[in-house]
Amino acid sequence: MRDMLEGSQAIARAVALCRPQVVAAYPITPQTHIVENLSKLVADGKLTTELVSVESEFSAASVALGAAAAGSRAYTASSSQGIMLMSEVLFNIAGLRIPLVLTCANRAIGAPLSIWNDQQDSMAVRDAGWIQLYCADNQEAVDTTIQAYRIAERCEIPVMVCVDGFVLTHTMEAIDLPTQEQVDGFLPPYRFNRALDPRRPISIGTLVAPEYFSEVRHANHKALERAIDEIEAADRDWAEVSGRSSGGLVEVLGDPEARIGILTLGSATGTLLEALDEYPDLGPVRLIRLRCFRPFPFEALRRACAGLEQLAILERALSPGLGGIVGTEVRAALADLEGTLHIRDYAVGLGGRDIPLSTLPRVLEALAVPESERFRILDVNLEQLPEEDR
Amino acid sequence: MSEQPIADLRRHQPRFSGLESGHRACTGCGEALGARLVTEAAGPDVLVANATGCLEVFTTAWPQSSWRVPWLHSLFENAGAIASGMEAALKAQGRPTKVLAFAGDGGTFDIGFQALSGMLERDHNVLYVCYDNEAYMNTGIQRSSSTPHAATTTTSPAGKARMGKRHLKKDIVSIIAAHHVAYAATASVAYPSDLRKKVRRAMAVEGATFLQVHSPCPLGWGHDGAVSIEVARLAVQTGLFPLVELERGSLTGVMPIREVRPVRDYLRAQKRFVHLFADDPRAREELDHIQALADHNIERYGLRGDRPDALDSEGADTVRRGGARWA
Ligand SMILES: Cc1ncc(C[n+]2csc(CCOP(=O)(O)OP(=O)(O)O)c2C)c(N)n1
Ligand SMILES: [Mg+2]
Q: Does pLDDT of B318 surpass 60?
């Protein structure tokens, strides 16, 4: 059944369908509506869960960790400064191989203070050891949340579901919410092999000396790599239940034969798709969406980019002093094509800066300049800066 | 008493021990003793959330562990929140298992204070035990807000311009009690049966409880490991570490001191206070100051007792009760 739902509301309903036994979150724009909606579902008796109203994001992540380790399905969500405050716990959750799901309502990180969307927050914790999936729209946010629990629990790796703040979280869309039976059939009850239990006492989170540490990291890394199969399988199997795929690892849209490509993550996908309709004279363009950023889908990405001559990367974050984050990784993945493939990387939509449809022709025009910078922030209005900062 | 060796006597007591021997604590470590006593009294039906610190490090050098209870270490500053999550999970699953949180004074008074306060305010069914050795021992003896006034640590050294730590020991149990939790108490490893009794009391409460266990650290305090118990007992007998119980914020129990000892006896036993015995007017002033702090505690809590010193009389009984839970 299709309902008109705000993104956050849809996500909250999807979370509830997954029957988490413990939910802990702390308000921060633009995530707040998710925790508010969950609280209301609990208050109305539509969700039975231990809702822990914590005093910080740091504790929200810690409560979720403790709950999942004690054998309960757990959920948390945050944004921006909250993700930063959580970051120590996020690394810990992944290192301990605790399966849980976190929604990151993507927002810029201060300073300067900004409540608006970009993806600096989830990008800043990309090396924490979490699976990261970026959603293009709210239907996907719903479907990906449900898939995320299955992936997390099968792989014993936490999953971060990234949704662009405001652009998705605060937008009304017609959403097809699955039934409880569909979700129950897809997602078996939570069972954690290493759950803390007095009948079988184990120690989790011990001190590991140099003679074992590399082995633990190796196991972590390999588990992330192997998760690729589970991520694809979850999308395939859920498509069978729901009739909808969320794009697997990497989705190819537009003209799959085109020699010019644009790669992006998240909600910018929809904007670019619409721009392709708006500007039909631009010629064939292949639109590549990276749905799965961790583990990094080398093979799928290379397949998606096969035959390209020019590639523009549009990303909503950057690593100051380096340039693009996604761009740098994509370049590395396609390194052996360098020489035949011309790649340019653009940061767009920072701190809530709009990404209008006209971004498409401007990017393609910039991409066509052979001697241009490898990376730059698009749409910088230099007149707003003092001379020495330009 | 017969000449039976101690190990033999132990075997006759069906005692549950949550912390086995063979760990890597220093000899005379108060925390190791404290954790053993707490888990003995709490019994096997518990989950433990342990903060980073000596206790975590010396008990779990992978691939070995000294714990016989399910145990999880996450971070330095989140034991209160990890325990909250565990308790929420057990509640959701309808399991009666009790959650214990273990942390040092640094993990409790300082960096983990916010998570602890949240846990208390939400009244999770958790017994939070702070093993108070009055400094960051795991990282090499740095001051914490629990370090007593005038004690030296590596970040509050004594020198020409300083007499050790300049600030007072934080009155954590009063702050905990101000959350109006059902039970908050202080205990000392020098009084094991009192400590066990307090653990059992806290275990019987449905809700957040707190126990601060004064735990001598031979390395950090500068005394021989063989006299840890004597040193810890002096802290109580001088009034510097009052043993008290608070229920819903009101004082409901104190360990009386029959023969109050001067603070010098306690301070002289430890190298961290050695500068206070130099021929220096500032040292004399500090000594007077510390004596005044002890006198204030005695006055405030009414510690001067006329009844005999409570020197651990119900030990055997305690052990049997701990054992019964396990059997
Ligand atoms: C966020 C963070 N900061 C600092 C540390 C380093 N550190 C580990 S244990 C510790 C001190 C522990 O002191 P305390 O809690 O009193 O326990 P003790 O070792 O004295 O038993 C410190 C500073 C850390 N692990 N995490
Ligand atoms: Mg300490």
A: no
Of A50, A66, A201, the CB nearest to B91: A50
**Which residue lies with its CA nearest to atom 5 of ligand 1?**
B76
Q: Please tell me the pTM assigned to this model.
A: 0.94
Q: Is the same domain home to A258 and A238? A: no
- CATH number, domain at A375? 3.40.50.920
Which parts of chain A sit beneath pLDDT 50?
Answer: none
Q: A282 and A224, same structural domain? A: no
Count of domains for chain A: 2
Domain of residue A221, CATH code? 3.40.50.970
Transcribe B153-207 into DSSP letters: -TTS-B-SS-BS--SPPP-HHHHHHTTT-SEEEEEETTSHHHHHHHHHHHHHSSS
State percent of chain B over pLDDT 70. Answer: 91
Interface confidence, given as ipTM, is: 0.95
pLDDT of B316 reads: 34
Q: State whether A72 and B89 contact (CB < 8 Å).
A: yes
Q: pLDDT tens for residues B97-123?
A: 999 999 999 999 999 999 999 999 999
**Are A340 and A307 contained in the same domain?**
yes
Query: A348, A356 in Cβ contact below 8 A?
Result: no
Token pair 């996908």 is found at A269
The range of the structural domain enclosing residue A275 comes to: 250-389
Q: Domain check: are A40 and A144 in the same one?
A: yes
Chain B contact for A212 (CB, 8 A cutoff): yes
**Contact predicate A338/A357, CB 8 Å:** no
| Statement to judge: residues A236 and A257 lie in one domain | no
CA pair distance A374, A271, nearest whole angstrom: 23
B139 lines ligand 1 (CB under 6 A): yes
Overall number of domains in chain B: 1
Confidence check: pLDDT of B321 > 70: no
Nearest CA in chain B to A60: B81
Q: Check pocket membership of B145 for ligand 1, CB cut-off 6 A.
A: no
